[in-house]
């Protein structure tokens, strides 16, 4: 049976597993140190066990739950209490799942991959080569960047014609 305890800082009602009896843990809401009393201690009239001094307990890093009965554990990077099933820490941003980490890297790289570099623009100045390189870039998995290169390569002959007409 879980042990009911009240956070002294935020007043949130918490439930801790019996394994945490006599130890301390962090409140999942405010992060304050909460002393989990021994299971044998008397329950006060308000339904919660009496508060004790948190300094007399040892921290073993076990999971604590809030009223929502979500099991919590300390983040291996920052030590804040997070949901046991969490794939990313809401405090430090550390990602624990390799599949989520790979998706985040792909998303971050997508915006950069779609930008044309100076070399891409230089290749697009020459109409046939720019179109061919743009098609190759599209086939290799960067369709937006490839379309930009083809579009620029198609516009360049008109731009060169306008420049030649102006100065010629």
Can you give me a brief rundown of this structure?
The protein is α+β, with helices and mostly antiparallel strands and 168 residues long.
Spatial strand order of the main sheet: 1-2-5
How much strand content do the residues show? Answer: 5-15%
Helix-strand category: alpha+beta
Indicate the mean pLDDT.
Answer: 76
> How large is the radius of gyration?
30 Å
C-alpha geometry: rod-shaped
* Uncertain stretches of 5 or more adjacent residues: 42-63
The count of strands amounts to 7
> Number of helical segments?
4
Query: Helix share of residues?
Result: 25-40%
Which series of helices and strands comes N to C?
A: EEEEEEEHHHH
Number of domains: 2
How would a textbook summarize the main sheet? 3 strands, antiparallel
How far is the N terminus from the C terminus? 91 Å
């Amino acid at each position: 049976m879980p042990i009911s305890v009240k956070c002294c800082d935020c007043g949130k009602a918490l439930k801790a597993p019996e394994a945490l009896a006599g130890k301390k843990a962090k409140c999942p809401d405010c992060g304050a140190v909460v002393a989990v009393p021994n299971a044998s201690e008397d329950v006060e009239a308000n339904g919660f066990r009496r508060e004790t001094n948190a300094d007399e307990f040892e921290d073993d890093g076990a999971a604590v739950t809030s009223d929502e009965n979500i099991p919590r554990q300390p983040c291996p990077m920052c030590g804040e209490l997070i949901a046991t099933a969490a794939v990313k820490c809401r405090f430090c941003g550390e990602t624990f799942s390799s599949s989520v980490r790979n998706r985040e890297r792909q998303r971050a790289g997508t915006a950069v991959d779609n930008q044309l570099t100076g070399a891409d623009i230089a290749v697009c100045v020459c109409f046939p080569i720019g179109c061919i390189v743009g098609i190759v870039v599209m086939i290799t998995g960067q369709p937006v960047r490839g379309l930009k290169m083809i579009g620029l390569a198609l516009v360049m002959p008109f731009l060169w014609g306008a420049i030649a007409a102006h100065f010629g």
